[in-house]
Specification:
Helix content: 25-40%
Number of helices: 10
Number of strands: 14
Number of domains: 2
Radius of gyration: 26 Å
Strand order of the largest sheet: 1-2-3-4-12-13-14
Strand content: 15-25%
Shape: flat
Structural class: alpha+beta
Largest sheet: 7 strands, antiparallel
Distance between the termini: 34 Å
Length: about 425
C-alpha cells in the first residue's frame, strides 16, 4: 500500500525522530499534491478580481496625480494606501502554489500506536492522533482511485490534518480505502491505550524520575541551564500553586523580537510612519516663510498619529520583554501560562481542556506546543484564529509528552528524549 514515489529522506528522518522507543511504522506516504483543493478555488478566483481591481485603482490614482502636476508629497499618500491591497491580492494568487509545495513537504505515517502528520520545511508541524482521538472515520473517492480520508476528533469536530490551509479534507492519498482500514484498526485500540480515569501525572513511567516534584520556589527551576528562570518569576509561580500542587516542568519561552503580532505591528509602522512624516513635512504653500508655521500647525493635529507609529516600531522590544516575563508551567493538576510583571496574568489549562495538543518543530530543536486555537471576532465581525500554548520553547517534544500524560491521552515514556 506504499506509494511508489519515494519519500524524501528529510521527511523520513523527521518521522524516525518522532517515534517513541519500540514504536513501529505500519504505513507511510505523502499526500497526492494538488494546486486547487476545493477551498482554494474560490479564494484564487476572488484573488484574481481583487488584484485586478487594486491594480486598476492604483494606476488610475497615479495617472490623476501625474495629470494634476501636484508637487506636494501628500499627493503620494493615496498611492501608498493602494500598495497593501495589491500585496493581499498577490497573496491570494500565490495560495495554489503554497498548497502544492506544502503537500510536497508533508508526510503521513500510521504506527502501531498513532497517526502522525508531519508538515513544513523550516517550520515543522507535527500532529499526533492517538486511538482515542480517531472517531467517525470516513472517506471520499475519485474516479481515478484517489480520495480523502476524514477523521473526526472528540466532540465530533472535523480537524484539518492534511493541508497547510484550514481545509476540511484530511488525508488525500492514492489508496484511501486501505488507509481507512488501517485507521479503523488503530481506533479499535482506544480502550487498551487510553489512560484510566484519574490517571495521575506522576504514575506515568519515567516522568517522576525525569522531573522530580518540587515544593519550594527555590527549587522550581526546571528550565534549561542556558536560561535559568529568575527568582522573582519563580516566586510568582510559587504563589500561584494550590496547596499540595507539585510542579513537573517550568520553562520560559526563547525570547523573540518578531513573533507574529509584533511583526504585523512593525510592518504597519513601516507604512504608517512615512505617511505621517510626509504629511507633516509637505509644503502646501508657495511661500517659504510660511513653511515653519504650517509644520507647527500640522504637528498639533498629527502628534497622536506619530506617537502611535513610534509605538508600532517599539513593538518588537515589547514582545521581547513579554517573553522574558513569561513562564510555562506543568503541574500534577494543570498546565498554566504566567506572564506579566506589575500586572500578572495566569491562564490555566486543566486536563479536560487538553484535547487537541499539537506540536510545531523548528530547525535547531525549538518549537511550539499548541494547546488550543481560539476564534476571535474583530470590530468588523471578521473571524481570526489565534493559537494558544507553549510557544517557542526549547524542548517541544518533551513538553508534548508531559502534556499528553496530564491529559490522560497516553502513558508516555521519556527515555531517549532530550
Amino acid at each position: 500500500m506504499q506509494n511508489e514515489k519515494p519519500i524524501p529522506l528529510e521527511l523520513v528522518d523527521l518521522v524516525d525522530r518522532e517515534l517513541a522507543p519500540g514504536e513501529r511504522v505500519a504505513w507511510m506516504e505523502q499526500p497526492v499534491p494538488r494546486h486547487f483543493p476545493p477551498k482554494i478555488k474560490p479564494l484564487f478566483i476572488f484573488g484574481l478580481f481583487w488584484t485586478v481591481i487594486s491594480l486598476l485603482t492604483a494606476l488610475g490614482t497615479l495617472l490623476n496625480i501625474l495629470k494634476s502636476e501636484i508637487s506636494s508629497a501628500l499627493a503620494l499618500i493615496p498611492v501608498a494606501f493602494e500598495i497593501p491591497f495589491v500585496l493581499v491580492g498577490c497573496w491570494f494568487l500565490f495560495l495554489p502554489r503554497k498548497v502544492y509545495l506544502g503537500d510536497l513537504r508533508t508526510v503521513y505515517a500510521v504506527t502501531d500506536r498513532r497517526l502522525i502528520v508531519v508538515e513544513g520545511a523550516k517550520k515543522i508541524s507535527i500532529r499526533s492522533f492517538f486511538p482515542n482521538d480517531l472517531g467517525n472515520i470516513h472517506r471520499n473517492e475519485d474516479k481515478d482511485g484517489e480520495g480523502d480520508v476524514f477523521v473526526a476528533v472528540e466532540g465530533g469536530r472535523e480537524r484539518s490534518v492534511g493541508l497547510t490551509t484550514d481545509d476540511e479534507r484530511v488525508l488525500h492519498v492514492e489508496n484511501p480505502a486501505a488507509l481507512e482500514a488501517l485507521l479503523r484498526d488503530l481506533a479499535r485500540k482506544a480502550e487498551k491505550t487510553e489512560a484510566p480515569a484519574g490517571h495521575p501525572l506522576w504514575a506515568s513511567p519515567g516522568i517522576a524520575e525525569a522531573n522530580p516534584p518540587h515544593e519550594t520556589a527555590g527549587r522550581l527551576d526546571m528550565a534549561s541551564d542556558q536560561d535559568p528562570v529568575p527568582k522573582d518569576l519563580l516566586d510568582m509561580v510559587d504563589r500561584e500553586l494550590a496547596p499540595g500542587e507539585r510542579v513537573a516542568w517550568i520553562e520560559r519561552p526563547v525570547p523573540r523580537f518578531f513573533p507574529p503580532d509584533a511583526l504585523v505591528a512593525f510592518l504597519m509602522g513601516l507604512i504608517w510612519n512615512p505617511v505621517c512624516i510626509f504629511g507633516l513635512l509637505s509644503q502646501d504653500s508657495a511661500e517659504p516663510e510660511s513653511y515653519g508655521a504650517g509644520v507647527a500647525g500640522r504637528l498639533i493635529f498629527l502628534w497622536p498619529f506619530l506617537l502611535l507609529g513610534f509605538l508600532m516600531f517599539l513593538s518588537p522590544f515589547f514582545a521581547y520583554r513579554r517573553d522574558l516575563r513569561t513562564a510555562y508551567v506543568i503541574t500534577d493538576r494543570r498546565a498554566f501560562i504566567l506572564s506579566g510583571a506589575r500586572k500578572r496574568t495566569v491562564r490555566s489549562f486543566f486536563p479536560d481542556r487538553l484535547k487537541d495538543i499539537r506540536r510545531k518543530d523548528r530547525r535547531g530543536g525549538k518549537g511550539h506546543v499548541v494547546l488550543l486555537t481560539e476564534l476571535q471576532v474583530d470590530v468588523d465581525g471578521d473571524r481570526h484564529s489565534k493559537e494558544v500554548g507553549f510557544m517557542n520553547v526549547r524542548h517541544p517534544q518533551r513538553l508534548e509528552t508531559l502534556l499528553r500524560a496530564l491529559a490522560g491521552t497516553m502513558v508516555p515514556s521519556t527515555s531517549g528524549q532530550s
